[in-house]
Write a structure and sequence with these properties.
It is found in: Cell outer membrane. InterPro entries: SusD-like_N (IPR033985), SusD_RagB_dom (IPR012944), TPR-like_helical_dom_sf (IPR011990). It comes from Flavobacterium franklandianum. The protein has about 525 residues and is mainly alpha-helical. It has 21 helices and 10 strands. Among the domains are: about 250 residues, Alpha Horseshoe (Serine Threonine Protein Phosphatase 5, Tetratricopeptide repeat); about 100 residues, Serine Threonine Protein Phosphatase 5, Tetratricopeptide repeat. The strands form 5 sheets. The protein has a two-stranded antiparallel sheet with strand order 1-5. A hairpin with a 2-residue loop joins β7 and β8. The longest helix is centred in the first third of the chain and has 26 residues. It is globular.
Length: about 525
């Protein structure tokens, strides 16, 4: 991989992990920590803090969680669909991304490696700083290992065989998928050893913790089918005693109750920090804010662009099982808008607002991550401040249950699944479906995850790692649920390696079927 060296203002990126009450105008202008010409940098504790803040900054731009990464993670699943007029977006869910047009997926690829480069600068320079606080030094190095692991996690997960930079250089050879996962696992392991379980200082809210590193370590093991080690990592998260499910499921997707007890790691967005311009990528300007474009991209018709919508398959699956009070699963209303009596969006009554258009009146629109509770008229200012929750405790519980099932402890899986079900009032699974065998429990976990995490970027990862695309019966089932799967071709579960990378990195091989 050949890197562009970005000049940027590190102080801006510090806004990613501190509250706005602590931000002054002068804080927005700092020495550039990644400019090799600045010989005075990488000398003090504060330099190290600013350097790691810059590494967090790559989570905020268009290639990552401002917009592109949620789209790439969501659109291939059977929980959502796209009729976007933009072909680069429309084609993601149809497994038809164009090698000659790297829009969206190429931006993500580039930004992941921008983040890796910034993390590597921290890892290369911080060990040489004589810290006044050794605990701070370890924490910063742990955060750098976590962020490098996270960026590489996305790169390997989406692009398969990619470069694995672990030090500053000009060219990095393409590595195998197995080598990629090994590096991701090594980074998360190292991060878990260095990071604290919690951050006592509220100004550090949003920084990586031991639980975040262990959670992603478990995911990396799970994605490589190392269920034994995944089980150990997830149990370590549980045993930390730091996390618990919030009582209100919807609190995980609004700008209230952020960084709550259920959140292991989330990207910090804010309407009030920084400027008003969007961070599209590359070298930032001083006017950049730290807001998300997810809400407008996924927004309901007339309130956003409606580039992403829930599937009717998802809507119907929410009807399969009633709660103990014979009500519909409350996660349905937290996930999507539909024509239900009394439903309001952005202060408007659904049935009244869409009354003149039968298509919209009978359609489904995204509610997760929308600023739709009445404080805003629509999303057309492109400035959502809702934090993106990358890893929730509910995910840890269901992944742990999956590991128990895959390591021949199917009975043990019940209690962890039930913790997630009980929050939304679903019946005791041990009573409703007692004595399931491993295969039956595997299917049940698929159903539980489908309803707990729609529009959160998990569904297609699950489909791929479970091998459903290589199973003719399962693939036909997916095609019956989501017509977009009829476009799937072997190898298209991964995105193409961007052509610019192929051109700049001799010897790179393109992914199959592209």
């Amino acid at each position: 991989m050949k890197y562009k060296i970005y000049n940027y203002i590190a102080g801006f990126f510090s806004l990613a992990i501190i509250t706005t009450s602590c931000v002054n105008d002068e804080d927005l202008i700092q020495v550039d920590p990644n400019n090799d010409a600045v010989d005075s940098f990488w000398k003090t504790d504060q330099d190290a803090v600013e350097g790691i803040n810059a590494a967090y900054g790559s989570l905020l731009t268009d290639g990552t969680y401002m917009r592109s990464t949620p789209l790439l993670l969501d659109l291939k699943g059977d929980d959502c669909r796209s009729n976007s007029p933009w072909d680069a977006m429309y084609n993601v869910g149809r497994f038809n991304s164009n090698v000659s047009n790297a829009a969206i997926y190429g931006w993500a690829y580039e930004t992941y490696y921008q983040g890796v480069y910034r993390a590597n600068q921290v890892l290369e320079n911080v060990p040489n700083i004589a810290f006044t606080d050794a605990t701070l030094k370890n924490r910063i190095l742990g955060e750098a290992r976590f962020l490098r692991g996270l960026y590489l996690f996305h790169a390997v997960n989406m692009f398969k065989s990619v470069p694995l930079p672990t030090q500053i250089a000009a060219i990095y050879p393409q590595k195998t998928e197995a080598e990629g996962w090994a590096q991701v696992i090594a980074d998360f392991k190292a991060a878990a050893d260095l990071l604290p379980a919690t951050h006592a200082d509220l100004n550090n809210k949003g920084r990586a913790t031991k639980g975040a590193a262990l959670g992603y370590l478990g995911k990396a093991y799970l994605f490589t089918k190392d269920f034994t080690n995944a089980k150990i990592a997830f149990k370590q998260v549980i045993d930390l005693g730091v996390y618990s499910l919030v009582s209100n499921y919807r609190d995980n997707f609004t700008d209230t109750n952020e960084n709550n007890s259920e959140s292991l790691f989330e990207v910090q967005f804010s309407r009030s920090a920084g400027g008003v311009d969007l961070g599209w990528g590359g070298a930032p300007a001083t006017g950049w804010g730290k807001t998300s474009a997810r809400a407008i991209t996924y927004g309901p018709r007339a309130f956003g662009w409606t580039d992403v919508q829930p599937t009717f398959t998802l809507f119907n699956e929410f009807q399969v099982e009633k709660t103990v009070t014979n009500a519909v699963d409350p996660r349905l209303d937290a996930t999507m808008f539909y024509n239900k009596p009394g439903v309001k969006l952005y202060g408007q009554t659904f049935s009244t607002f869409y009354a003149g258009n039968a298509g919209d009146l009978n359609d489904l629109f995204c509610r997760k991550y929308q600023n739709s509770d009445g404080n805003y008229a629509n999303e057309f200012d492109w400035r959502s401040g809702i934090n993106e929750r990358l890893l929730r405790y509910a995910d840890v519980l269901l992944m742990y249950a999956e590991c128990l099932n895959e390591t021949s402890d199917t009975p043990g899986a019940y209690q962890y699944i039930q913790m997630v079900r009980s929050r939304v009032g679903l019946p005791n699974l041990a009573t409703a479906k007692p004595g399931m065998n491993q295969v039956q429990m595997r299917e049940q976990i698929g159903h539980e995850r489908f309803l707990e995490f729609p529009l959160e970027g998990h569904r297609f990862d699950d489909i791929r790692r479970w091998g459903w695309l290589q199973d003719p019966v399962k693939l036909a089932w997916l095609q019956s649920r989501d017509v977009e799967f009829k476009s799937y071709a072997q190898g298209r579960e991964f995105f193409p390696i961007p052509q610019l990378e192929m051109d700049n990195n001799p010897g790179s091989n393109q992914n199959d079927s592209y």
